[in-house]
Fold this sequence. Notes:
There is one protein chain. By secondary structure, the protein is α/β, with parallel strands linked by helices. It folds into 2 domains: 2-128, no CATH class; 140-402, Aldolase class I (TIM Barrel, Alpha-Beta Barrel), CATH 3.20.20.70. It has helices at residues 78-101, 112-123, 126-139, 183-197, 219-232, 235-238, 247-250, 255-263, 278-283, 290-302, 317-334, 355-363, 370-382, and strands at 2-7, 10-16, 21-25, 32-36, 42-47, 50-54, 60-65, 71-75, 104-106, 154-157, 159-160, 179-180, 207-210, 241-244, 266-274, 306-313, 342-347, 394-398. The strands form 3 sheets. A 9-stranded antiparallel sheet has the order 8-7-6-5-4-3-2-1-9, covered by helices on one side. A hairpin with a 4-residue loop joins strand 2 (10-16) and strand 3 (21-25). Helix 3 packs antiparallel against helix 4, helix 4 packs parallel to helix 5 (219-232) and helix 8 crosses helix 10 (290-302). The chain starts with a strand and ends in a 7-residue tail after the last strand. 39% of the residues are buried.
Amino acid sequence: MAILGTWKGRPLTISVKPNCLTLSIDNPAEASVFSYDYAGRLWTAYLDSISYRRGLDGKMIAKWRLPGDARERRWLSPAEALQIEETARQTVLALKTALYTGEATLHTPLPPQGQTALERIIAFDAKRSRADAAHYHQIYKPVGILPPDQYMAVVLQATEGCSFNTCTFCNFYKDRPFRIKSPDEFRAHAEAVRDFLGEGLGLRRTIFLGDANALVIPMSRLLPLLDIVHDVYDVTNLGGIYAFLDGFSGEKKSTEDYALLAQKGLVRVYVGLESGNKSLLQFLKKPGEPADAIKAVRAMKAGGLAVGVIILLGAGGQQYASGHVQDTIAVLNAMQLGMDDIIYFSELVVDEGLEYAQDAYQAGLKPLSPEERIAQGEAIERGLRFSHAGGTPHISRYDIREFVY
């Protein structure tokens, strides 16, 4: 429900949606926009041509466009993030006062859900925000990464860490060993997440079973954990269950296993293929071979699941570029992907702390420029072939530096 009005001579729109409340002040081209979940947490804001996104841990990223359409980003300091939250909160407080005094007018009355939301937003001050972020850290280990279409998921950490943790281009899980939670521990975690989100649960669109490679859990231990998810959450209403599984481990589950997981609410499995080139995978210390990933994806799809396949652009630099493109095309085509599937192109992000940086230096690799990495993705995409019956998967790019949960 979009409620129109005016405030200080400016257009005002309050959108009371099933999952969030959005406040827009001024004409669209110049508007300040704030969106909140129904627990009162700021979700996104747009101020002075800069967009902000707050994570559940209180961290906030700012993004803006430069002349020529180049995009910049910066993570705010805790004090800066709290200031953006307070600017938004004070705006909502001033609006509520203006509605009471008649300085602001609405063409139709604000429904009870909207009134309650305004009260919760106003109550979510800096002290409450800090406490909320501290509560988050009591419930979660760091959430390393999610596929972009899962940024608004309810993350449930059935496992912690990564089952192999050898990839040189990834340091998301180096700080903790891999382990599988017991049913009792996982139930307590799932309930704690539900209670933490509170009225903000409606903003979440799916359930993501974490951490990395969570579906490596043996079926005898995985099925009881999925039953717990159904006990604590309305899985169907939330949009189903999603998870990572690498191709190497994936081949250990059968088509029948995946069919059973689909019955349990699993919708899509994300596979970090990275490359179809065997030599490059070995250089990246990625377990398994391309044939393993092909076999795993075919079994998943035969079991009724969709897949998301992630390709790493720029990996291996100039030396591996040709083989990376040609072999990745061949592997993706062999997977027989269709309209329910996703292909993600993720550019390699290297910093000095990564093992990849050391290995690349020792091997004398010449890195690809940003333009060459984009061209590499375009070359792979041009070589893909999909059946008319199966349709074309969604193909998208994403930047891990912009991940917010």
